[in-house]
Amino acid sequence: MERSNQLYNKAKKIIPGGVNSPVRACKSVGCDPLFIKKGKGSKIYSVDGDEYIDLVLSWGPLILGHAHPEVVKAAKQALELGSSFGAPTPWEIEMAELITDAIPSIEMVRMVNSGTEATMSAIRLARGYTKREKIVKFIGCYHGHVDHLLAQAGSGVATYSIPGTPGVPEQIVQHTLLAEFNNIDGVKEIFEKHGEDIAGVIVEPIAGNMGLVLPKKDFLKGLREITSKYGSLLIFDEVITGFRFCYGGVQNIFGIEPDITCLGKIIGGGFPVGAFGGKREIMEHLAPTGDIYQAGTLSGNPVAMAAGIATLKILKNQDYKNLEDYTHNLVKELNNIFKEKSIPVRINQFGSAFTIFFTEKDKIKNFEDAKTTDTNRFSHFFVHMRNSKIFIPPSNFECMFTSFAHDLKDMDKIIDSVQRINL
Ligand code: HOZ
Fold first, then answer.
1. Residue 17 has pLDDT above 60, yes or no
2. CATH architecture assignment, domain 2-67+319-419
3. Is 142 noted as a catalytic residue in this protein?
4. Are 7 and 47 contacting, i.e. CB atoms less than 8 angstroms apart?
5. Is the pLDDT of residue 165 over 80?
6. 151 has pLDDT over 80
7. Does domain 69-315 sit in CATH 1.10.1740.10?
8. Nearest one of 404, 380, 407 to 392, comparing CA atoms
9. What is the pLDDT of residues 365-377, one digit of tens each?
């Protein structure tokens, strides 16, 4: 088989940058991408014949690890029956039931094909429902590559320091109002000025695209109060957080009910999927019951539904607390090592997600904090980890994830490789 570098050279000739999503090119950490042959459990295997412990997990979806036998079986069985019908199937109802049972704020849900589609559709619904145009989004939050949500976004936009939104006309972003994550007073000011015109506020309840950044106590509660006061909709982008920290959304943990929730990643079991859902009264404004148009040829795809249903059914019986403890212990060890080595870090962790920020700061609470950490040092860290056969995201603005497939041997290996680091 051709090696990663040969494949990359080939790919660059016919795929822009050689990749189908920018961060994968590993440019910001000064490396070339690895080409992957297969994955199993907590490991991925490159075409070069190397085994890596995977802390990327396809950027979040694979909370059960790679190629979980029951998920593979469900997808295979569905595929045998046909790959797409463009007509309703029983799987879509089962998926909708699983989602609405797990997340009480979702009374009705519609399936789409990606997180980007979910947020795009949620915004359209919010605008159509409220008959208002403005949207509030938070600097450093990322909601997919939707035109009007790319303004000062996290993830790949932050990784490559793309200043504005080339390719997006001014008129399209003129209704996007930017606010600082964790600054409720800033949001209040925006509402005092524009409140009557704001259709909704979209937020990652735990930000996962400026690295992992937790909401301050009362920030989400504040958003709920302000949006209710002004008749705007609160939209939680739970594409990363949905089913990652508990069987449901992180909204279940925080006890805040948004009007609309966007999902993706985990609910597709590794297949392309997204969903948006919320109160019946709002969702029924979608066509064909209502007049807000939204559609998709492959929406509710049977193979993706089957893999997602299998994943959710397994997750229902998993002990999330164990996974959280596992990750917490790992982070504790990493903190100790960095301390011994006098390398200043701030590791933000929640459940099975974490980000290592190299910084003297004792808190990373918004994008400004995240951006001013030592991303150069992170690049060296990335290279060391990759050489030690640990696969981590090639950007300081993405999260590391653990899965139910990771075990203590994996943890020892990760710790051992960090112990050998010389930054
Ligand atoms: N924006 C994605 C993660 N937050 C990256 C997707 C990818 O490169 O696969």
1. yes
2. Alpha-Beta Complex (3.90)
3. yes
4. yes
5. no
6. no
7. no
8. 380
9. 999 999 999 999 9
